Amino acid sequence: MFDLDGVLVDSERMWDEVRQAFAARHGGTWRPAATRAMQGMSTPEWATYLVTEVGVRLTPAEAAAGVIGEMAERYAEGPPVLPGAVDVVRAVASRYPVAIASSSPPVLIKSFLAATDLTDVVEVAISSEQAGAGKPAPDVYLLATSKLGVDPTRSAAVEDSTNGLRAALAAGMAVYAVPNPHFPPDPAVLTHVTVLRRLSDLPGALPTP
Q1: Which end of the chain is more exposed for a tag (fewer CB within 10 A), N or C?
Q2: What is the pLDDT of residues 87-105, one digit of tens each?
Q3: How would you class 102 by CB atoms within 10 Å of its CB: exposed for 0-12, middle for 13-18, buried for 19 or more?
Q4: Where are the transmembrane segments (predicted)?
């Protein structure tokens, strides 16, 4: 199970830039805690946060549509795929069933899969929008493993952020962390997972099926 933002695409900073600029245009006041708070949230959750905590003068639905629209425009130029990410997904998929369990909206997940030609490789792609609750709740991972027909306790997740790591741990999965250098995860959470220096180390770290 791969997370998307920060693991396969270098988009965490893009989300942050778009949300901050959007908030500034619509009456919001950005606080440093907002960036980490929204990492892993589902679309309804972060859109509500923008309104209730940041002060954006729109409805959550309007905030979500505006931010996702701007992200889609950036993705239209080509998703910011991290170096080697596609090769790693293909290498893992040659040995195990592979899924994406992401907080990104479905339109951006589909854009990534189409741009990287991974649509037929990734068997299941789930957004936390479809799962009911965003990370750190385990819902997106539990739904993804259910649709893949596998036991979460016999599955592995690859994450980069604190909330993502917590979600995978709560689902009972083996967890591999590729820490995001721009938004380093909580060191206390890292003590419960396998930490990789880079994503390309993942195939060699996985057990033989």
Answers
A1: C
A2: 999 999 999 999 999 999 9
A3: buried
A4: none
